[in-house]
Amino acid sequence: MSDQQVRDELSQLEGYTFDDKPWVTPKPLNECRVAVVTTAGLTVDNNADWNPGDQAFTLLPDDRRDFTLAHFSSNFDRTGWVVDPNVVLPLDRLDEMAAEGVIKSVANVHVSFMGAQIDHTLETIRLDTGPAAAKALLDDDVDLVLLTPV
């Protein structure tokens, strides 16, 4: 599938409208514990078994760096990941920011979903796996999430 075909298909997706628009005043960055949420389909077990429509997530431990990029889309350019995994999962940069006091700390866990979702409703992510991933981050006292869409 060409890039234009993907863009044409995805441009037809409807966005969600929420009645409530909650607002919280954020903490200063140097008081924030930061996690990464990516759509790169990363795994920790060397298992590249993500499938189209899979709306699950994987928790990525901060003390590991041997993740497998399992994104199934042929349109995903893996060059950046091969050259520098921080392009997708900037854990080294977050560690540096924590050491410099720019952020308070780096989370113990990060989250990876599979991008390129083709399900028009994404109900599972919205009602099940999304809240479960958020709970895992809240359980780790995460204040701020850096999103790395791929």
Question: Features of this protein?
Answer:
single chain; 150 residues; alpha/beta; five-stranded mixed beta sheet; two-stranded antiparallel ribbon; 4 helices; 7 strands
How many helix segments? 4
- Class inferred from helices and paired strands: alpha/beta
- State the major sheet: 5 strands, mixed
Oligomerization status of the protein chains = single chain
The parts where pLDDT drops under 50 for at least 5 residues are: none
Helix content: 25-40%
What is the C-alpha radius of gyration, as a whole number of Å? 16 Å
SSE pattern, N- to C-terminal: HEEEEHHEEHE
The dominant shape is globular
Task: Please state roughly what percent of the residues sit in beta strands, choosing from under 5%, 5-15%, 15-25%, 25-35%, 35-45% or over 45%.
Answer: 15-25%
Number of domains: 1
Residue-averaged pLDDT, rounded? 84
Instruction: Give the tally of β-strands.
Output: 7
Q: Distance between termini?
A: 17 Å
Give an overview in words.
- With 150 residues, the chain is an alpha/beta fold.
- The protein contains 4 helices and 7 strands; from the N terminus they run H-E-E-E-E-H-H-E-E-H-E.
- It has one domain (3-148).
- The strands form 2 sheets. Strands 1, 3, 5, 6 and 7 form a 5-stranded mixed beta sheet that branches. Strands 2-4 form a two-stranded antiparallel ribbon.
- 26% of the residues lie in helices and 18% in strands.
